[in-house]
Give the backbone structure.
Amino acid sequence: MTFTTSVRRAMWGVLGAAAVATVPFASPQAADPIRIGVIYDFTGPFAAGGSQAAAIGTQIAIDLINEKGGVEGHKIEAITADAQSKAEVAINEATRLLDQEKVDLIMGVYSSAHCVPMAQKVDSQKKFMWANVCVASAVFKGKNLKYVFRAQVHSDQFGWASCTFLNENAEKKLGIKPSDLKVAIIHEDGPYGSGVASGNEENCKKYGMKVVLKEGYAATAPDLSSLVTKLRRARPDVILHTGYNPDITLFLRQAKEQGLKWAALIGHGAGYGQIDKLVATFGKDADYIYNVDPVAAQLLDPKTLAPGLGDLTAEMVKRYKAASGADQVPPHTSMGFNQAWIFFTDVLPRAIKTYGGYDPEALRKAALDTDIPVGGTIQGYGVKFDPPGSEMAGQNSRSSPVVMQYVNGETKIVWPTAIKTMDAVLPLPAGHAYAR
């Protein structure tokens, strides 16, 4: 769905009118609003690839906070910007929000191609940025950023998760030892796809798997038939794919046309996180695709989380469906909501109460004090940021993705074993369009 400015405003208006839920921070005294620049892709290919869903999740969190008086009496005022699925627009919008709109911080950002340069720019200006969705490890790795933080998972973890899942299931499910398993890695060639692919290659090789092909392509490529031909020659058992929405659609169509078959296709977030789009385009052919992502919160058992988080997830789901009109709630909704919620209920109140305000230095100190245990967020993982001087300074060291599988239009958790809701279907069942 492509968003015009008027549609975007209407969507956020619907969210603002949603029902009241319990929010812990309120104050009877009015205070200046905290102005937050929220950047997502409301138009262009990234909008339907998860950015739109993340934006709705973020606004739901803002609405819930404001309905109970804000944070320490400060209402949250979101100044939204459309990155238009273009890196140069995203950077220009960040500059405009900071320099002209005078926002107190930047939040959001879907694409890692936008996030990597934006994080460096914001940090160099000693402004504060809270990243909700982008996952590239390159945002932080070796950068020693001081004013940029991310509670979200990072791309190295994606590669670890899919390869570990295969290592645990190859012999049990496929009758193939990990050392004999043939894996192909294909990816869009931006920071996101390249980062995940590097993690795939490193971790699968650690398990002794045979990487028979590793190749990137432009996300805007009009034809992927040559890549499909290479995959047919390589004959991998498993394909690990990282892409957005249009390129995934193109790949699956051309793979079917050329008769490419596999035992398993494992996607890594972005376009693979949008089950409704996959089902709408491919119908039953979308069954049994895997997706590595931070978990969609509604898939978790509330009993494994801190008290009240199950109710919070239910409220998020209700509001998302009302705002979007969709039946399925993709993982990106939880990402946008969860990261915003962590900031509004943990970091921001501490900055105000302990460090005297919400300037970049106070927010930085408050973020470094964050210590949320596993089970303390709606997505299950805890939050503790790597300290200054470490390789991933500013990254949440307690974050973790899961492996999900789509079956009959529903999303099931298949890994890790401790929280799985279904046993993985591996290999593809006979009769499936892509089954060998």
